[in-house]
Amino acid sequence: MKARIAVLPGDGIGPEVTAAAVSVLRDAAARGGHEFEFSEHAIGGCAIDAHGDPLPAETLIVCKQADAVLLGAVGGPRWSDPKAKVRPEQGLLRLRAELGVYANLRPVRVHPKLAALSPLKNERLTGVDLLFVRELTGGAYFGAKTRTADVATDETKYTTQEVERVARRAFALARGRGRRVTSVDKANVLETSRLWRETVQRVAHEFPDVALEHQLVDSMAMLLLTRPAAYDVIVTENLFGDILTDEAAALAGSLGLLPSASLGDGKVGLYEPIHGSAPDIAGRGVANPLGAILSAAMLLRHSLGLADEAAAIEAAVDRVLDAGVSTRDLGGDAGTREATAAVLAALNERA
Ligand code: ATP
Ligand code: MG
C-alpha cells in the first residue's frame, strides 16, 4: 500500500525518538512491500524560532492531507516564559483540534522484566493491561478563559455529541479486548460529569456485549494504585484523562515506554509517545525510543490497517525488553540507537 506520513519531530528529544520510529516504519515498508512517503515539518518551539508560529500553515496543510502524523514532543525551557505571547503547546492543542482527533488512546501494559521499576508491589502489577481513552478536544482545555487581576476562570463544557463519539470509540475498542468499560467522572459535583454519565449510559445500550461501570475520578486515582489489574478500557474527559494517564504511566516503570494514538472520524490520526521533550537529556543520544516506536505500531494499526505489522513491532519490543536491553530511564546504559537497532534486529530475526 501507499501512505503519506507527516513527521513532526518537534523539540528536545523529539527528533531523536521520531528518527527511531521512522526507521522502524521504513523497515516495515521494506518487508511488506509498502510505499511510505515521509516528510518533515516544524511544530512547537522550533517552529516559533523559525516561523514565529508554533503551528505554521504549511505544517497544518501537510498534516491534513497526510494519512497519518507522527509527532515527537514540543516545548522546553527556552519557550516556557508564562508571559510569552506564543507557546509551543498551543501548536499541539491547535493541531489536535484542527485534525478533529477527539479520542486519545493510551495503552498501559507492565512488562514483567520492568515490574521492579514500578512504585507498586509486583503482585499488584501482574496482568495489568489498560487502555485509556481520553477525550482530547473538549472540556477545560478548550473552554473560554477569563482573567482579571484577582479572578480567573476556565470554562468546562461538553455536549452530548462530544461525549457520545468518544464513548462509542471506547466501547468499540473494548470489543477487541476484555469487553469492559469503566467511565470516569465527578458526577456527584459537576454538571458536565452528570451529562457525561447519562450519555455514556445511553451509548452502552448500543453495546450490550460490553460491561459498563462508573467510577468517580478521585476513587479511580486510588484504584489505579490498589487494583490496576481489575480494569480494561477506561474512558474519561480531557482533564481527568491527562492526570490519570500520567499516574498510570508510572505503573509501567518509565514514561519513555508508552505510546499514544489520537483519532477522530477522519482518516488521519496523530501518533506520539506520551513523554515530553525531556530537555534534561536532549541531544545526548540516551532517550528511550520505545514509546515512539510503539506509537509507530499504533499508526500502522489504526491509520493504515496494518494490524499484523503493528503486532510484529510490539512483539519485537517485548523481546528486546526480555533480552534485557535497557536505556538509562530503565536503569541500563543502552543509547537510543542501540535500543532502536535491537528492535530492528528482533523484527528481522523473526522474518
Ligand atoms: P511535558 O511538559 O512536555 O509533558 P514533562 O515535564 O512531563 O514534559 P518529560 O519531558 O516527559 O516531562 O520528562 C520527564 C522526565 O522523564 C525527565 O527527567 C526526562 O528526562 C524523562 N524522560 C522523558 N521521556 C524520556 C525518554 N523517552 N527516555 C528517557 N527519559 C525520558
Ligand atoms: Mg507531561
Summarize the helices and strands and which ones pair or pack.
Layout: E1 2-10, H1 14-32, E2 35-40, H2 45-51, H3 57-65, E3 68-73, H4 88-99, E4 103-109, H5 122-125, E5 129-135, E6 145-147, E7 152-154, H6 160-175, E8 180-185, H7 191-204, E9 211-216, H8 217-226, E10 233-236, H9 238-252, E11 259-263, E12 269-273, H10 290-302, H11 307-322, H12 336-350
Parallel strand pairs: 1-2, 1-3, 3-12, 5-10, 8-9, 8-10
Antiparallel strand pairs: 4-5, 4-11, 6-7, 11-12
CA-based shape: globular
Uncertain stretches = none
Order of adjacent strands in the largest pleated sheet? 2-1-3-12-11-4-5-10-8-9
> What is the H-and-E element order?
EHEHHEHEHEEEHEHEHEHEEHHH
Largest sheet: 10 strands, mixed
Distance separating the two termini = 19 Å
Which ligands does the model contain, each kind named once?
adenosine-5'-triphosphate, magnesium ion
The Rg value, from CA coordinates, equals: 20 Å
The number of distinct helices, counting runs of at least 4 residues, comes to: 12
- Count of the domains: 2
- Corresponding CATH superfamily of the largest domain: Isopropylmalate Dehydrogenase
CATH topology of the largest domain: Isopropylmalate Dehydrogenase
Tally the beta strands. Answer: 12
Per CATH, which architecture of the largest domain?
3-Layer(aba) Sandwich
Mean pLDDT: 96
Approximate helicity band: 40-55%
Pathway: Amino-acid biosynthesis; L-leucine biosynthesis; L-leucine from 3-methyl-2-oxobutanoate: step 3/4
Pfam families: Iso_dh (PF00180)
Family: Belongs to the isocitrate and isopropylmalate dehydrogenases family. LeuB type 1 subfamily.
Binding site for NAD(+): 76-89, 276-288
